[in-house]
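Ticket 4471: requesting a sanity check on a complex prediction with HC1. Repro inputs:
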Amino acid sequence: MVNLTINGIAVSVEENKTILEAAKHLHIKIPTLCYHKDLCVAGNCRVCVVEQVGNHKLVASCATPVAEGMEINTNTLKVRNCRKHIIELLLTEHREECTKCYRNGHCELQALSAEYQITNQDFIDLVPDKNYTVDRLSPAIEKDDSKCIRCQRCVRTCAEIQSVGAIAVAHKGSEMKISTFFDRSLDEVVCTNCGQCIVHCPTGALTEKSYVEKVWDALADPDTHVIVQTAPAVRVGLGEELGLGLGTRVTGKMVSALKRLGFDSVLDTNFTADLTIMEEGTELLTRLKRALVDDDPDVALPMATSCSPGWVKYIEHKYPEYLPNLSTCKSPQQMFGALAKTYYAKNVNVAPENIVSVSIMPCTAKKFEANRPEMKDSGYKDVDYVLTTRELAVMIKQAGIEFEKLNDEIFDSIMGVGSGAGAIFGATGGVMEAALRTAYEIVTGREVPFDNLEIIPVRGLEGVKEATVKIEGTVEAWNFLEGAELKCAITNGLENAHKLLEAIKRGDKFYHFIEIMACPGGCLGGGGQPFPVDNEIRLQRMNALYEEDRNLPIRKSHENPEIVQIYKEFLDEPLSHKSHKLLHTSYVK
Ligand code: HC1
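Returned structure tokens:
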């Protein structure tokens, strides 16, 4: 342990901790901007300076390791003046239009300016003379360089967490900027649209493309029938944005708010998450049969999940040779969209051309996914508009709905019933757990041999998780799987996906089934979820999703009565001709 004093108070911390971390032990808050718990230390903004007693040197607390006998002051006149000047200098290059900014009220620079009472400007304003770029071409993400403070949190996020590198530092000195390959639009480079850069950006330099006004217009149009689906992870994130505690489950209030906003039908993506299990589970078993019984050399294993659009785009860009490994299932969002303008339209007797299909997602890549040319199998654009959790919160606030006072309401039907298995899709490992609950039961006729259906090895925030499920006592149709050991792996965050694919490529690892989610923690940590985010927050949302599962009357996808109904009335069986037409697709490089 290392002993030091901060503001005269003694503290002992482990070696290799920084002054910033040591101060946290004493509940002393030091302001930061370029620092983020998820990322490596950059130490480039210097707003976290503190003063060493004795030599009066200022050091960046986020980048300075503690040392035995160190004496630090975090709140001297010199420190306060220095921080104030740093903030003022950052503001000279930052377009100050706070009241018109998307991040108004959520901007870390704005909060620091308020805290340090920056009321006048002593430095020359550089904004008018700079030639800033504003990129609005992507359907998912907007990048406004005039709001950028060059802290490089986005660059580190894109490289370290996502292994993508779509954004990087270009030029030097005062010309330095956060750019892309040849300064092209995010729409034209290897960006996966995951939005992790947005949730790690301290200002409004990176934001999602908003479709709030389009949805208000649709709701106001008497000739449209506007339906909404809500993703699993939204129900454990929305409350945070509306003043409730971290990880509060707000499913019933969310439904109630959506009804008050005027949606004609409030439905659940968990329903199509269950449908995905039916289709993807059957696809996996079919692939296993081809590999194990037919000795088919062309069958691609491991089969990989395909519901995370950031992951799909990543594999298209970086590992196209593994595209045959992707499940052909569309994501639950897109399955829902294809069914909304076919099955649902027929059931409620509304012309599909009059249906506006909206989805609420924790994810910015879902905006891109809905715009993919593959996603028109209903004969129309399957999902018209995708709003993030944050955008839904904006609409609820604009409508003057006192969210915390709402009573719980239930989803409409049809396509409004989801199982606990569908709910846990929003957490890393959830798709795997849901698939195993159903596939194991189909193959053996018995429940998975885990207490209370909870497959603990696939849960948690570790980057790469593995599980082996031994199949014993099969029903007749699946005799070839008797005694087989199904090897599975789960990753979250694309850097971990990269590690896993490299291990598979080298032949170090073999799996039958892998679940990959683009965002840390899975969708609950998506780029459209409330700010801020770190692992403690992800864990709270994750626990809430598992609680949601435990509290639902149906916890296995194949037992969802609306799933039974749709196969009986419309789809016939998993992987049927109709399923293939509406629910499956393929991606190309
Ligand atoms: Fe997800 Fe999915 S779980 S991808 O993370 O498969 O966004 O929540 O909606 O489509 O169901 C996201 C979440 C979401 C899909 C489902």
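Notes from triage: Residues 29 and 552 are 41 Å apart (CA to CA). Leaving this open until the requester confirms.
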